[in-house]
Amino acid sequence: MAFTLPNLPYDKSALEPVIDGRTMEIHHDKHHAAYTDKLNEAIKGTQWENETIESILASLDQLPEDLQGPVRNNGGGFYNHKLFWTILKPQSEGGGTIHAGDLIDTIAKYFGSLDDFKAAFKEKATGQFGSGWAWLAATSSGSLEVCSTANQDNPLMPESHGGCSSKRIPILGLDVWEHAYYLNYQNRRPDYVDEWWKVVDWRRVETNYYDAVATLS
To answer: Per residue in 35-48, pLDDT tens?
Structure first.
């Protein structure tokens, strides 16, 4: 079973002016495509090619040592971007709109308020040295945590392979590699983080939260 590059659920220019169409084209068609191809190449002919990407990343320690690096980098890149595209939505279709519900209540419970959460998330996103991601992750108890990871690591991975901590599933992630924002924002990563909230699909993030808690329980 080969992994396939997912289609974007919107036009490449649909997230403008927050994320420009040229950035989306390069990001999806070049970077994500390359991670997908290299992941398939790494696991071709092994028992791992029939596993889900979530299962592969959660069990990196069990892969042969010569596969751990390529799968960590390219499998992480495949999964991270696959999640990233789905939690974004054009502003004209409700991107950035906050809906009252269990997720917002849970965010308030663990962070104090939505604004406090955004501040904590921004601190992780802007404080990540070099390339990486900022995450909101669900835990097995149903709580929420923010963390950041380097390169294409993510919370699914064991801590020994860059994961935030054990038994965490990301429900929202922000790509802070320069290729995700440099054409519009150059070195102004904080501005990119602030603008990005305008295209977050909160309903999808809430669905991700419910799915994560069900998986972890």
So the answer is: 999 999 999 999 99
Q: Could you say which of 3.55.40.20, 2.60.60.30, 3.40.1400.10, 3.50.30.40 is the CATH number of the domain covering 92-216?
A: 3.55.40.20
**Is the distance from CB of 202 to CB of 107 less than 8 angstroms?**
no
Max Cα distance, the chain (Å):
49
| Non-local CB neighbours of 51 within 8 Å, separated by 6+ positions | none
Instruction: Delimit the domains of the chain by residue range.
Output: 21-88, 92-216
Per-residue pLDDT band for 9 (boundaries 50, 70, 90) equals very high
Spatial CA neighbour of 216 closest among 174, 162, 156: 156
Residue 47: Cβ within 10 Å count: 8
Q: pLDDT tens for residues 63-97?
A: 999 999 999 999 999 999 999 999 999 999 999 99
Residues 67, 46 contacting (CB under 8 angstroms)? yes
